[in-house]
């Protein structure tokens, strides 16, 4: 039966083919430069169907977002990693401030850069601490703590030194108790009257949500110190300073 079917198909195949070639379909989409909704949908269509990248349309979206940029929002991760943001409605910032482009003053500018790997998010994403600037002073709860970290811990262990933050504002430095350690944090955003999103500064670069009642004011003596952690996969990475060899003074992953 299968052989008969193939022979019959081969015999009549030429009759089934359309003698006329159909033209390629075309469509026209009208969109003003201010019509961000339709422009985004068109860009999304291009990307989903693997068509040529609509650079001109993406440029319109980026320009409009820059004009409406709120200063208090954190930087968009897609913009930092890929240079474009394809989210429909992105709530993050799409412009980088000067202090985000330039490396901090305490970063080494040349020579060998020694650092200790404290967190390994993936083989390509690390959180490290510069060994020359912040050497390990003690091990607290099996964690290599610097002299600054020890001072913060001993200071806030005393209840008299812990004062609840009166008014959390994005961009300020504060202190939280994280895994039984008192640590400095950067206030990223105030999610509600009761919750605040913060980023660790000295032991990791992760972000966590805390209740406002768990947020303490950071004393001035600790605000003058720079951040100890460097996220090797973000804009704060050592790659923005110098292409360096990774030298691990301790042959151990923490």
Automatic annotation (TrEMBL):
<dbReference type="GO" id="GO:0016787">
    <property type="term" value="F:hydrolase activity"/>
</dbReference>
<dbReference type="GO" id="GO:0042078">
    <property type="term" value="P:germ-line stem cell division"/>
</dbReference>
<dbReference type="GO" id="GO:0048477">
    <property type="term" value="P:oogenesis"/>
</dbReference>
<dbReference type="GO" id="GO:0030718">
    <property type="term" value="P:germ-line stem cell population maintenance"/>
</dbReference>
<dbReference type="GO" id="GO:0005524">
    <property type="term" value="F:ATP binding"/>
</dbReference>
<dbReference type="GO" id="GO:0070725">
    <property type="term" value="C:Yb body"/>
</dbReference>
<keyword id="KW-0677">Repeat</keyword>
<dbReference type="GO" id="GO:0007281">
    <property type="term" value="P:germ cell development"/>
</dbReference>
<dbReference type="GO" id="GO:0003724">
    <property type="term" value="F:RNA helicase activity"/>
</dbReference>
<protein>
    <recommendedName>
        <fullName>RNA helicase</fullName>
        <ecNumber>3.6.4.13</ecNumber>
    </recommendedName>
</protein>
<keyword id="KW-0378">Hydrolase</keyword>
<keyword id="KW-0547">Nucleotide-binding</keyword>
<keyword id="KW-0067">ATP-binding</keyword>
<keyword id="KW-0347">Helicase</keyword>
């Amino acid at each position: 039966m299968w052989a008969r079917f193939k022979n019959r198909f081969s015999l009549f195949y030429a009759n089934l083919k359309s003698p006329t070639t159909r033209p390629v379909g075309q469509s026209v989409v009208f969109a003003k430069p201010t019509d961000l909704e339709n422009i985004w949908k068109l860009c999304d269509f291009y990307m989903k169907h693997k068509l040529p990248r609509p650079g001109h349309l993406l440029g319109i979206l980026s320009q409009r977002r820059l004009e409406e940029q709120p200063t208090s929002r954190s930087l968009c991760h897609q913009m930092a990693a890929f240079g474009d943001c394809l989210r429909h409605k992105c709530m993050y910032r799409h412009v980088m401030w000067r202090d985000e482009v330039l490396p901090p003053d305490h970063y080494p500018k040349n020579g060998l850069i020694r650092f200790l790997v404290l967190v390994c998010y993936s083989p390509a994403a690390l959180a490290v601490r510069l060994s020359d600037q912040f050497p390990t002073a003690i091990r607290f709860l099996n964690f290599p703590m610097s002299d600054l970290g020890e001072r913060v811990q001993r200071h806030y262990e005393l209840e008299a030194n812990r004062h609840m933050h009166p008014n959390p504002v994005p961009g300020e430095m504060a202190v939280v108790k994280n895994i039984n350690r008192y640590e400095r944090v950067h206030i990223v955003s105030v999610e509600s009257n009761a919750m605040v999103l913060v980023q660790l500064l000295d032991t990791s670069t992760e972000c966590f949500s805390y209740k406002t009642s768990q947020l303490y004011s950071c004393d001035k003596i600790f605000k003058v110190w720079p951040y100890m952690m460097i996220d090797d996969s973000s804009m704060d990475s050592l790659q923005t300073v110098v292409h360096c060899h990774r030298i691990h003074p301790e042959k151990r992953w923490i």
